[in-house]
Amino acid sequence: MLLRQLEYLVALARERHFARAAAACYVSQPSLSAAIRRLEHELDVPIVRRARRYEGLTSEGEVVLAWAHRILAERDALHQELSALRGGLTGTLRLGVVPTALPAASLLTAPFCERHPQARVSLESLSSAEITHGLAEFELDAAMTYLDDDELRHVRRFPLYEERYVLLTPVDGPLATATTATTARWAEAAALPLCLLSPRMRNRRIIDECFAADGATAAPVIESDSVAGLYAHLPVGRWSSVISHAWLHMFGVPDGMRVVPLEGPAHGPRVGIVVARDDPPSVLAEALVKSAREARVRDALDTLLHTYLEGGSS
User: Fold this and answer.
1) What's the burial of 171, exposed, middle or buried (CB within 10 Å: 0-12/13-18/19+)?
2) pLDDT at residue 71 above 80?
3) Pairing of strands 155-162, 241-244
4) Second label for 115, Cα 20 to 30 Å away, from 54, 154, 292, 313?
5) What does DSSP say about strands 222-224 and 195-197: parallel, antiparallel, or unpaired?
6) Angle, helix 297-311 to helix 283-295, in steps of 10 degrees
């Protein structure tokens, strides 16, 4: 059995199409098909359900695919450990990040790249479900996500920060005069023309719970499925938004707006790094965790929030 055959199988399962899988592996379609047939012959089991087109894997094929992911991950881990012994970590760190944590991701990747200049980072914006799948299938080395996600199993968790929620509102708005000593209420914020993330986003569901705890329901004028889309509407000066303080790291405070503290819990859900419970662990993932601990992400974000609360608008 050749590792190349396993790579072809993984590509086919991912692309679900022989031609696309062959293109992803930089080989011809007949070469890829022949290699998988040889793998079936060597293992003496049918792996692919074939008709006029790819129709999926057999039950035996699903077992082979799981082992293929594991074997290829072990190969990559061997290369990473040997490169570290030679004095310089190489390879590509595959990092999945939930969309609402993306604005703070550079607080992890920048120190990692500075410490390991020969390594690279492949960063993907993924849902919680996609992160869970990616870790289980050895498609990710680590992820930055909510640590209380019930779907996360067989992982190690490393806290980074707790989300804090604040109001971004025009400087001439009715709540802009609130200070750290006179916080605005969630019910007051709900009465403003709001721009919020869409309900399918975890952050929005948490914020809706905060509104409900104050007896209010938010009816945003604008809903977006990305933080960037939300921020794109704020400089207009017509809408306010409730944001996570981590977003200030990337987007700051738009001109003509200010940050207003909100009543309620001092901390929201925890965001952190999760890595699979591999043995031996991924060298790249362990290097990321070490860099994150030294970066003190929580302190950096809390300091940034304090600066904006004290200074008002940007």
Assistant:
1) middle
2) yes
3) unpaired
4) 154
5) parallel
6) 40
SS3 content of the chain, % helix, strand, coil (to 5): 45, 20, 30
Q: What is the mean pLDDT of residues 24-36?
A: 89
Q: How many residues are there in the chain?
A: 314
Identify whether the C-beta of residue 197 lies closer than 8 Å to the C-beta of residue 204. yes
Q: Apex CA 200: angle with CA 232 and CA 121, to 5°?
A: 65
pLDDT by residue (tens digit) across 288-309? 999 999 999 999 999 999 999 8
The average pLDDT across 173-189 equals 79
Q: Which of 306, 276, 285 is nearest to 154 (CA)?
A: 276
Is the backbone peptide bond immediately before 111 cis, with ω within 30 degrees of 0?
no
Q: Distance of CA 32 to CAs 11, 28, 51, 145, 241, Å?
A: 10, 6, 16, 36, 51
Which one, of 269, 279, 262, lies nearest residue 246 by Cα?
269
Q: At what angle do helices 3-15 and 59-85 cross, to 10 degrees?
A: 120
Q: Is the pTM of this model over 0.85?
A: no
- Taken in order 174, 178, 182, 183, the sign of the CA dihedral is positive
pLDDT tens-digit readout, 197-242: 999 988 999 999 999 999 999 999 999 999 999 999 998 888 999 9
pLDDT at 313: 46
Estimate to the nearest angstrom the gap between the alpha carbon of 267 and the chain centroid: 20
**List of residues 6+ apart from 271 with CB closer than 8 A:** 98, 101, 104, 144, 145, 146, 147, 159, 160, 161, 162, 163, 246
Give the position of tokens 């993924």. 126
Percent of the chain with pLDDT strictly greater than 90: 47
